[in-house]
Amino acid sequence: MDYYLEIRLLPDPEFPLSFLFGALYGKLHRALVTLESDDIGVSFPDYSLSPRALGNRLRLHGTETALSRLMAQDWLRGMADHVRYSEILPVPDAVHYRTVARRQFKTSSERLRRRRMKRKGETHEQAVRAIPDSAEQTPNLPFVHMRSQSTDQHFVLFIEQGELRDQPKAGQFNTYGLSRQATVPWF
């Protein structure tokens, strides 16, 4: 993780930032799937819990080779009017590190009940007793709207940042550039 490139979303009067971020992140996901990449991580320099937002910048972290391979895919095609991106640059010397990971929540008791009914052959009443309304969780994390490449289902990808660390931790990243173990430089 000694190199990075930064992508900045530009304001657009026709599209909200959240829509553009979803489109950008979806394109990144498809490119990482195509490359079968597990060596590129992401960070969100403008991440905020209050107000809850990812901001308008996305950083990609990896080796110079991994980032060059990604950018050779021309995965930003169609986004030219909406983004500006930097060269592939070395990470500054004095940085901290943190994990950036997906966090999943049980946000719909009714959806959980339907799933339970299907998997266990239960009636709606049995599922209601097993999964009360209080099982729902209300997340307070920034997110991006996504569509799964494998199931074509729409979902909300909640992003959680780990604590700052002085030392990096190696590991693999998923096809969203996220990891619960591997860190990315934070600056």
Automatic annotation (TrEMBL):
Pfam families: Cas_Csy4 (PF09618). InterPro entries: CRISPR-assoc_prot_Csy4, CRISPR-Cas6/Csy4_sf. This is Type I-F CRISPR-associated endoribonuclease Cas6/Csy4. One of its GO terms (biological process) is maintenance of CRISPR repeat elements. One of its GO terms (molecular function) is endonuclease activity.
